[in-house]
Specification:
The protein is mostly helical. It has helices at about 10-50, 60-75, 80-100.
Length: about 100
């Protein structure tokens, strides 16, 4: 029976850097996806302002949260965390929509 040698300090550092590089790439993708999402929600806000539609749609928000919680559970991500994250995004979008409606942007 052979015992595997523990990794060297350099190997540990290299593995940690590999993980961190992956995290950095994922963070960049998240930021880019959020930017794209906000570009579209900006268009939605302009459309709502132009046609006098309300900045918030509680029924849509409820459905989106339910959908996201289900997706989170399927992806083994804490649904409560996902709901908090989406809630933060929704609040920011509504804030922008109100500013568009009020002619502040």
């Amino acid at each position: 029976m052979t015992t595997a040698n523990p990794p060297s300090e350099l190997d540990k550092k290299n593995k940690l850097n590999e993980y961190r590089n992956s995290i950095d790439n994922i963070d960049a993708a998240i930021i880019n996806m959020l930017a794209e999402r906000f570009k579209i929600t900006q268009k939605v806000g302009i459309y709502k302002a132009e046609y006098g539609l309300p900045p918030a749609d509680k029924e849509r928000e409820k459905l989106q949260i339910e959908r996201l919680r289900k997706l989170s559970a399927e992806a083994q991500l804490n649904p409560d965390f996902s709901e908090k994250f989406l809630d933060f995004i929704i609040k920011e979008v509504i804030h922008h929509h109100k500013k568009l409606r009020d002619g502040e942007i």
